[in-house]
């Protein structure tokens, strides 16, 4: 746990130290600090084609569950963030709730050297199954349109960044496994109304990896909209919208 938070601190230091070493001629050298409070939302998922490398699906000729395919991994995250920036570098803290939209269904991994389709598990997430995530990201802006070019009305920048977080799971997974004594598969146990057992997720706390790419739209240096895509332990697309406060912009669009 302490190692993860040490890595997050390193991200913050790197974000704030990666700005331009010096300003060009005619620009202020004492760039002001700026701060933002934003609301954020993300849609997350893993393409079926990626999961096909590890798990069987209805596309396999021997798929045993008629009328049902392997569930899709997808969800959404909603939260808030506090952002601080200077020059073209920024860091942010975020907190959010990530909710799984995955439906119940049958999962059977592709074992090496075997072709069994009936030894998988049936998983059913409880309502509001998801995680509370806290973390920190750093990023760098590459300006495309500066505020000084539009009389302070609009700025546009390309962003690249990343960071780490910690997710605390909410809810649990109900699991049915193949009966070892009778060989009855999990999907048949569900159909027969047999009881489940909570799936062992090993730890209630998981690390979260963030890799972000996107565009930042700056409206008069007061309202900020970020449109992003990347990795948030799954592939995602999302947006953040909020307000900026702090010292007035002197030479750059932050």
Q: How would you sum up this structure, described in words?
A:
The protein has 254 residues and is mainly beta. The chain has one domain (2-16, 32-141, 158-209, 229-246). The chain has three helices and twelve strands; from the N terminus they run H-E-H-E-E-E-E-E-E-E-H-E-E-E-E. It has helices at residues 2-17, 48-51, 186-191, and strands at 34-46, 73-86, 89-100, 105-107, 121-125, 130-145, 154-170, 173-177, 197-198, 205-219, 223-232, 235-246. The strands form two sheets. Strands 1-2-3-6-7-10-11-12 form an eight-stranded antiparallel β-barrel. It has a four-stranded antiparallel sheet with strand order 4-5-8-9. The relative contact order is 0.21. Mean pLDDT is 86; it is low at 1-29 and 249-254.
Bin the strand percentage: over 45%
* Order of H and E elements: HEHEEEEEEEHEEEE
Structural class: mainly beta
Total domains: 1
| Average of the residue pLDDT scores | 86
Please count the beta strands (DSSP E, at least 2 residues each): 12
Rg, rounded, reads 23 Å
Oligomer: single chain
How would a textbook summarize the main sheet?
8 strands, antiparallel, barrel
Helix content: 10-25%
Spatial shape = elongated
């Amino acid at each position: 746990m302490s190692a993860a938070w040490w890595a997050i601190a390193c991200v913050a230091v790197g974000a704030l130290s990666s700005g331009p070493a010096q300003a060009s001629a005619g620009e202020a050298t004492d760039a002001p600090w700026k701060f933002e409070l934003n609301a954020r939302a993300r849609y997350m998922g893993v393409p079926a084609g990626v999961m096909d490398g590890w798990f069987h699906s209805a596309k396999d000729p021997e798929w045993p569950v008629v009328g049902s395919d392997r569930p899709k991994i997808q969800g959404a995250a909603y939260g808030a963030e506090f952002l601080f920036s200077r020059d073209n570098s920024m860091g942010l803290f975020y907190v959010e709730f990530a909710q799984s939209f995955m439906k119940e269904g049958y999962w059977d991994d592709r074992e090496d050297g075997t072709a069994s389709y009936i030894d998988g598990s049936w998983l059913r997430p409880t309502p509001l199954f998801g995680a509370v995530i806290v973390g920190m990201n750093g990023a760098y802006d590459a300006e495309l349109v500066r505020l000084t070019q539009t009389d302070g009305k609009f700025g546009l920048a390309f962003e690249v960044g990343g960071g780490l977080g910690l997710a605390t799971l909410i809810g649990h997974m109900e699991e049915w496994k193949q009966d070892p004594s009778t060989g009855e598969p999990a999907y048949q146990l569900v159909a027969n109304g047999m009881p489940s057992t909570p799936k062992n997720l090993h730890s209630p706390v998981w690390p979260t990896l963030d890799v972000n790419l996107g565009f930042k739209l700056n409206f008069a240096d007061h309202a900020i909209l970020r449109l992003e895509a990347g990795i948030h332990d799954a592939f995602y697309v999302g947006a953040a919208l909020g307000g900026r406060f702090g010292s007035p912009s002197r030479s750059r669009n932050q």
